[in-house]
Amino acid sequence: MSRLVVVSNRVPLPSERGAKAGGLAVALADALQPGSLWFGWSGRRSARGGGTTHIQRADSITYATVDLSEADYNSFYVNFANGALWPLLHFRLGLLDFHVEDYAGYRAVNRQFAAALVPLLRPDDLIWVHDYHLIPMAAELRALGVTNRIGFFLHTPFVPPEVFYALPRAPDLLANLCRYDVVGFHTRGYRRAFLDCVAQGLGVHPDSDGRFVWSGRPVRAIIDPVGIDADAFSEQAVKASRGNDARMLRDSLGDKALAIGVDRLDYSKGLSNRFVAIGRFFANYPQHRKQISVLQVAARSREDLGAYQRLRRELDRIVGETNGKYSEFDWTPLRYMTRAVKRDTLAGFFRLARLAIVTPLRDGMNLVAKEYVAAQDPDDPGVLILSRFAGAADELPEALIVNPYDADEIAEAMHHGLSMDLAERRERWRSLHKNVCTNNAHRFCTLFLTHLARADTQPERPSLRAIS
Length: 468
Ligand code: GDG
Known about the structure:
It is a single chain. This protein has 17 helices and 15 strands. By secondary structure, it is an alpha/beta fold. It folds into 2 domains: 4-227 and 443-455, 3-Layer(aba) Sandwich (Rossmann fold); 230-438, Rossmann fold, CATH 3.40.50.2000. It has a 9-stranded mixed sheet, with helices on both faces. Helix 13 links the parallel strand 13 (355-358) and strand 14. Helix 3 packs across helix 4, helix 12 crosses helix 13 and helix 13 (367-375) packs across helix 15. GDP-alpha-D-glucose is lined by residues 19-23, 26, 155-156, 226, 262, 264, 297, 299, 340-343, 346, 363-368, 371.
């Protein structure tokens, strides 16, 4: 059997796990069989940058990491990946801040990563690269003579040509993305957008299965929604709901219900709009005042970027206004924290919550929606309010689907969710839960790796040339 080599920007080192267990580590846990290798950035900045590869082993998995220099960290990670690509891929052209030297830095770090990875590779390794930071990895590995099968999964949305081509150097980036054997997206819509960009920008016409030939190699674009380990999360939620943190939260609520939001503090997550909608809810439905508190956990992220600093100030302001307007001496409508919470504690909080408010303006998938469903008590489940612009909405239509820009609609969904009878809550939850259990982390990894293992690496075949 081939060895799996995972490549991602941040490597979740065993020594660092805890409060920040990210979605990627959870989604890939199943695929990482003993013997696998995980390669990427150490999270450290050092004067010499990526000169040395640090190797750690835990549970028969090898973690290989490199540092970044301060200059590379700024151009690759802060400025291009998160200051240009992230807003672009979330339809936020107004926030796109492109500088050609940052793109050069992005390309250079991908080249450094490829050079550090090559000595660790074996001829039959399957290489699985993750996310927008590392789009040029395959091209850089190929330039160094790597002939292995290489796949890429994009965790964000992909955008249609009229948005994508606003990015200077977009054709170069897209041509690099087409150097993989398999390119995976969460939804049909994202794959469609990618194939439209390929057709429009590269003049190549993919077939109805998402296959085409680029640079002499067959490429296949697939739909593979990311999932969670629903059973494990559910167990964690049951256990944590009996633990200390859940008890303290329950005691602090008294007889009031809980609504919960959990997101990285990111403008894509729609937190400003959500907070305005929560104010609207208490204005439009005064009968719920003092009956429910909303807890928003918004772990700080990417604090080096101005857009994130501005967002944080804006959220502080809206929370202050909302609480100033509606609080009573014995009741706070909106509890807001910008520190991360431990994963098992979160699972317990999800189980306590009567409502989850998951309203990103755009989101590749959104795992919180799936975690909330997995954490519920089947006999008395809560209600999920979900943005139509999260990839998860494609799979979870039995949630209360809302337009995250419409404060009245979110307020109405909160009222609807709180008024919903037990029979309807159970019926909706059963369908949601079935989906979360079926489209789980195991299926996500197996589907991708099956496609990758079967990828046709032969140079251009006549049948494919005819359609390109
Ligand atoms: C990207 C895409 C796509 C959140 N706060 C805390 C915490 N979390 C955990 C959640 C969840 C994960 O982090 C966040 O996953 P999301 O999917 O919601 O969002 P992104 O971080 O933006 O992830 C997204 C995902 O990749 C996977 O493909 O779904 O669309 O943007 O697991 O529970 N975990 C802990 N403390 C926190 O305070 N421990």
